[in-house]
Amino acid sequence: MEISSADYIISNTDVKKCPTGNFPEYAFIGRSNVGKSSLINMLTGRKSLAMTSSTPGKTLLINHFLINKNWYIVDLPGYGFAKRGKKAQEDLRKIIEDYILEREQMSNLFVLIDSRLEPQKIDLDFVEWLGENTIPFTIIFTKTDKLKGRELKTNTEAFLDILRGQWEELPPYFISSSEKKTGQKEILNFIENINKKLKNKDNKNS
Ligand code: GTP
Ligand code: MG
User: Fold this and answer.
1) In the chain, which residues have pLDDT < 70?
2) φ, ψ of residue 201 in degrees (nearest 5)
3) Residue 205 lies in a domain
């Protein structure tokens, strides 16, 4: 899929104030600093559409970007940034959870996992919470340019193995690097296919 336009639309803390209308949207979530905003810039081929930072906790709002005038990318705040303090962390958790549970336009949730690390409890807990709430999701392993040789396979398989033990079916997953543009085509194709399916469904219903 070609990205012919990518425009920042709005940021807010309240799911009820997110854009109205029924354009499908694709949200990106994951631990603070996992690379959500960088991935959004890589996918859209825009250097600074979403704000990135080496300091965790850069994205604190629900950010909507309109793509090709007919679908949205949503950059969400990261979870699990301990330094932020209890109250602030709770506020963020509420923003994230309300969005995920209430946003009907959310066509797919991408959960980003840092490929450099062994399976992290915070990610496993989050994925479990999605399961309990029957929210379908797709995994994207990030920062794969930082790994050598077999490390990538070892880390991704360790995470997937835990999921295999918990679920009957593995969710779809991709590997990515925002530095090297790994996964760009695959992830955009995946989104395009969902967009097409949704369009066909709309046409049949009208
Ligand atoms: P918050 O908004 O704070 O939750 O973080 P985020 O998940 O949006 O992460 P962000 O995209 O801001 O990236 C965090 C840091 O990781 C930045 O210093 C990025 O340059 C770096 N980074 C992100 N993706 C990659 C990648 O694919 N490869 C490498 N080497 N670094 C990356
Ligand atoms: Mg961010």
Assistant:
1) 82-83
2) -65, -45
3) no
